[in-house]
TrEMBL record:
Stretches with biased composition (Basic and acidic residues): 7-16
One Pfam family this sequence matches: Oxidored_molyb
Domain (Oxidoreductase molybdopterin-binding) ranges: 125-289
Annotated protein name in UniProt: Sulfite oxidase
Oxidoreductase keyword on record: yes
Gene source species: Paracoccus pacificus
UniProt signal peptide: none
Domain Moybdenum cofactor oxidoreductase dimerisation: start-end pairs: 317-433
Alphabetical UniProt keywords: Metal-binding, Molybdenum, Oxidoreductase
Cofactor: Mo-molybdopterin
InterPro entries hit by this protein: Ig_E-set, MoCF_OxRdtse_dimer, Mopterin_OxRdtase_euk, OxRdtase_Mopterin-bd_dom, OxRdtase_Mopterin-bd_sf, TAT_signal
Protein's UniProt keywords contain Metal-binding: yes
Length: 436
């Protein structure tokens, strides 16, 4: 692990307006800033829990080696079979055949971090945790974990979290960022309270337009900057599906996935599901936090030629994720007996709620057979599909899977509309099968 800042992993939107300073008259962000300033320590000092006497001599861009995050804890222990795409920040995806579970277990859940895991999460310390709801609300709230658990109905749902950049690796020409192939997605079971219930308790004013989310994870530079602060239109936030979660698969949310509290707002890119959640700022305009501007999580409003430069004014925020499916069994390259039925299965999901159908092809898309498709346990959980295929003679085959949403829109056989940062690629998943 290097002790210098890796600039190549940063979003190339450094020219985008940064909205880290509260607007005049707005309450000061209570999250990371307050945490970092505790005891009058510098940002690095607070992370280390002690002063750094020679800190002024630390060259710009150099991170204290003790913060390289490979000291005390092996963050990847307990994860099995994931492919690490970058280690600082830590990003890792799951091979498709390891995503076969209906409920994604911890060891198979992909990891997407824009910054460093905060010390509170590494320590598993939630004692002083507070969630602030403020901005365009009648009654700003400051809630402890116990307040959340006791004052609102507790709910549990299986919800897909998919990185907006999942599938980026398949775009031609390539685009910058983590080269997610298929496995920047998972569907754990989340327990918490409905985001809408908490917002209703705060009393959302008619002036509310958007949410702005904050967490206490630490910027790669060690500076007091937000790693990521995204939001959703207030109408989306007021739907019943989004939850403020404190548990994943029945356990406190693990450090990598947002301990002690995170948002899970399904259907939109994973980036709106803020981990280490400290604040939801209800805005009177579209949120302009970190990674809301430039090319971050934004797509050309109209189709563009692959590789085109798109002016910022032609970009719009990526909201609903497209319909998609994965083949999770068997693993690509598996041998099967020719002339005999073999089961192929996987999951399908879409940002608009329900998948209407899944089809598979064994002849490179010439003919398609409809798979059986299970109803989801709840809205925005992925849906199990199964197909029986018979490969007629020995040789090389591919199984292609194609999900269709309720509007009749289905996955393309090639990458869909190219965009500068390679988002929302729902190209059909293909696996190889060898008939013997
Ligand atoms: N605080 C915080 N929340 C965050 C992020 C982050 O870097 N910091 N990354 C976001 C992105 S881009 C994704 S895709 C999801 C990934 O969630 P996971 O790591 O639990 O799989 O978390 C989102 N929430
Ligand atoms: Mo993401």
């Amino acid at each position: 692990m290097s002790d210098t800042v890796e600039t190549d992993m940063k979003d190339p939107d450094d020219t985008a307006p940064k909205a880290t300073a509260p607007e005049a008259g707005q309450p000061v962000q209570p999250g990371r800033r307050a945490f970092l300033r505790k005891g009058g320590l510098s940002a690095f000092g607070a992370m280390l829990g002690m002063t750094i006497p020679f800190e002024r001599g630390l060259p710009a861009g150099v991170i204290p080696v003790a913060l390289a995050q490979d000291t005390g804890q092996d963050l990847m222990s307990g994860k099995s079979g994931l492919v690490v795409l970058s280690d600082r920040p830590l990003n890792a995806e799951t091979p498709a055949h390891l995503l076969d579970d209906d409920i994604t277990p911890y060891d198979r859940m992909f990891i997407r971090l824009n910054g460093l895991v905060p010390q509170t999460a590494l320590d598993g310390d939630a004692t002083d945790w507070k969630l602030v709801i403020d901005g365009e609300v009648d009654k700003p709230l400051e809630l402890t974990l116990d307040d959340l658990k006791s004052q609102f109905e507790n709910v549990t749902s299986a919800l897909v979290v998919e990185c907006g950049g999942n599938g980026r690796a398949f775009y031609q020409p390539g685009t910058t960022g983590n080269q997610w192939t298929l496995g920047g997605v998972g569907c754990p079971e989340w327990t918490g309270v409905r985001l809408a219930d908490v917002l209703k308790a705060a009393g959302v004013k008619p002036s509310a337009v958007y949410t702005g989310h904050y967490g206490n994870d630490v910027h790669l530079s060690g500076e007091e900057k937000d790693t990521i602060s995204r939001g959703v239109p207030i109408e989306k936030a007021m739907e019943n599906d989004g939850i403020i979660a404190w548990a994943m698969n029945g356990e406190p949310i693990p450090a990598l996935h947002g301990f002690p509290l995170r948002l899970v707002i399904p259907g939109y890119p994973g980036s709106v599901s803020q981990k280490y959640l400290t604040r939801i700022w209800v805005r009177d305009k579209v949120h302009d936090g970190e990674k809301m501007g430039g090319a971050s999580y934004r797509m050309p409003a109209h189709p563009v030629a692959p590789g085109a430069e798109v002016p910022e004014s032609d970009m719009e925020i990526l909201t609903e994720m497209p319909v998609k499916s994965l083949i999770t069994f068997p693993e690509t390259g598996t041998s099967v007996a020719s002339g005999q039925q073999a089961e192929v299965r996987g999951h399908a999901w879409t940002g608009n709620g329900d998948v209407a159908a899944v089809h598979t092809s064994i002849d490179f898309g010439q003919t398609w057979q409809e798979a059986t498709l299970d109803a989801p346990p709840n809205r925005f959980a992925w849906q199990r599909w199964r197909a029986m295929v018979t490969l007629p003679a020995a040789g090389y085959y591919e199984v292609w899977a194609r999900a269709t949403d309720k509007n009749g829109v289905s996955q393309p056989p090639v990458s869909p509309g190219w965009n500068p940062r390679g988002y929302a690629n729902n190209i059909q998943h293909r696996i190889a099968l060898i008939a013997t």
